[in-house]
Amino acid sequence: MTNVNEGQHPQRVVLNQADIDRALTRIAHEILEANKGPKDLVLLGIPRRGYPLAQRLAARIAAADPSVDPEAITGQLDVTMFRDDLARQPTRPPLPTQLPQSGIDGKVVVLVDDVLYSGRTIRAALDALVDLGRPRAVRLAVLVDRGHRELPIRADHVGKNLPTSSEEKVRVHLEEVDGPSNNEVVIEGSL
Questions:
Q1: What pLDDT band is residue 8 in, cutting at 50, 70 and 90?
Q2: CA 56 distance to own-chain centroid
Q3: CA-to-CA separations, 8 to 4, 99, 164, 167, 184, in angstroms, rounded
Q4: Given 18, 43, 113, 162, which is the most exposed site by the fewest CB atoms within 10 A?
């Protein structure tokens, strides 16, 4: 479906609520399989939308393995001060980094973000992790991989590969951040 509102770019919904739910359920099972269960697993969401996605993934992991406490394996990793493009980005106050009580030392940390594009946010996340501890392994789960990498970074778990032009924008809307009944992924731009 393509919508054009006055004063806005054309946009097309590429994932609706049901699509997002299916993608997150699949990613949760992939994470459990790759980790051979939930032992030593930590999900760190990158604000703003990576954190609610990490919470949703943790809930699905707990549904698949009732021994898991979703709150005990979920945290938030703010990367604002580790970005290499601060001068070009709009000013955004850092959000608190919140690690699970068990920390990240010796754990398998899965970084969770909404869209993988240039790879710069993930590079910043890796730098931030160095200041917080030494995980046994670091993996990456993203809802959307849109290509156009500038750094040699690849996601281990992807909800949807979405080839786009560099002129297009991929917008993820989640109800935890964007308000009720707002769960979709849209492409804005030259459609």
A1: low
A2: 11
A3: 7, 38, 19, 14, 17
A4: 18
